[in-house]
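Posted in: Structural Biology > Protein-Ligand Complexes

Title: Requesting predicted complex, adenosine-5'-diphosphate in pocket

I'd be grateful if someone could produce the 3D structure tokens for the following input. Sequence and ligand are given below.
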Amino acid sequence: MQKSLLRDKIVRLILQSAASMSILIVILIFVFLGKEGFSFLLDPGISELFGTKWNPVSFDKELFGIIPLFTGSLLATVLATIFAVPVGVVAAVYIAEVASPAEREIFKPFIELLAGIPSVVVGFFGLIVVAPFVKNLFGLSSGLNALTGSLLLALMAIPTIVSISEDAIRSVPQAYKSASLSLGATKLQTIWKVTVPASLSGIVAAVMLGIGRVIGETMTVMMVTGNAAVITTSPFASVRTMTATIAAEMGEVPFGSHHYAALFCIGIVLLLMTFGLNMIAQRVMRKYRMG
Amino acid sequence: MTDDYLKKTKIQAKNVDFFYSDTQALFDVSMDIPEGRVTALIGPSGCGKSTFLRTLNRMNDVIDGTRLTGKITIDGQDIYAPEMNVFTLRKRVGMVFQKSNPFPKSVFENIAYGPRIHGNNDRTSLTEIVERSLQGAALWDEVKDRLDDNALGLSGGQQQRLCIARALAVNPDILLMDEPASALDPRSTARIEDLISELRGDYTIIIVTHNMQQAARVSDITAFFYEGHLIEFNKTKQIFTKPSKQQTEDYITGRFG
Ligand SMILES: Nc1ncnc2c1ncn2[C@@H]1O[C@H](COP(=O)(O)OP(=O)(O)O)[C@@H](O)[C@H]1O
Ligand SMILES: [Mg+2]
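-- Reply #1 --
Done. Output follows.
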């Protein structure tokens, strides 16, 4: 009795420290990003960040407006979400509720494989296949644009959305489905009116994780979006995202310069966006926990 | 006492065999279930009571590899005929499960679910159905101020009566109940039994129970199953006082099962 009590305590302690660790890491990330970025707020000042031009290397005047980068990320993310969410959720519903066990055996490993493809490779695929396809389909002069980028981002978000939503959908108790069927509902009605609502918090979590992956993705967007730092809402325009900017410029920036600090500020904005996303997710989940 | 009140047959099973993939669960079951009365299905666990119950609303259809031979009619209509619409059938034959299973939705939405899927989206009419169904299940007074609360917050007994109300909301004429009180405390069980007595007459009720006293209290007719066979089917009074088969007597006197 005593012994098992002690073991309980120890296990509890281990779990507690693991959980605290994650909080600590988040705080540390914030502190260090803040430390590096803070100098920018003093000189040249925070208002510089709200400019509409990003031109950090210039003999004339350096410009650190992150608005075009922000809108670039936003456009790519919104488009990717529009593509990925319906496809991902429908695929998850299909695999969880409709597919035969044999079909499931085929789909699941493929989706896991898709999740594991390195983003550079997805980028290559984008350059060679998707960009020319988009270019020809819409008669554009170049296929390196927000649309191509977001299609590939969607491709990368879909496996996350599918596998986590599928788990959520499959965990809905059979008793709910039996109740629905016994009232004369069809299988499809049962899926859309009972099973999906009952697993909605899991589906929302899956979507948020998928969007998180999209926001954070760097390599692919760097390869296929054209990287022009302009403010636009056109899917056919070339855009440059915040992540791509950091990745492309961090290596060459003089340590401690304005440019260096500005890149850290972009990092902070990215972090805040992710937090915002999480908060929205929490709220949505709380609202839908009871349908 | 005359037997007139058992005269009109609602459901007729004729030579029903039932199979789960390779195992046979029912053997040549035939019975005439009277309209507007309570029929109890008893027998040791695994003898096929639930299986038989689910043949009546074709809920076995959703299990892969099941097969039925023989004939089951409701009001003379073959429910396994190709032209039978299984969704219409299930609307007519309501079901209450062993473990109460309200949807994780509000009380109101639980009851409105059935009417909604059958095309009723009129708020006034739904409100009226919700009230009538909850009253029918003797739950209205307890929940009338909590219609927008999550149904999962109700007590176990209330949840089960909510499930009965949910079944009533689509206007069935038959109610199947699979050990509806087996997970409930004695007080909630008594309320369910009272409710069954109230519903008797308006609905043809078939109830599976492993509780002999319950069968004796609530039912008019009792069917005793053993290993997939219908051993005895008779008036409840008869079964519990003068069973005609030794196996029945052994079971109800508690010698096995
Ligand atoms: N879904 C199923 N698949 C295969 N066999 C089943 C299934 N459900 C029940 N059975 C079998 O059918 C027989 C009758 O079961 P059931 O109708 O549940 O009995 P009861 O309700 O009287 O306890 C048992 O042998 C049981 O193992
Ligand atoms: Mg059973």
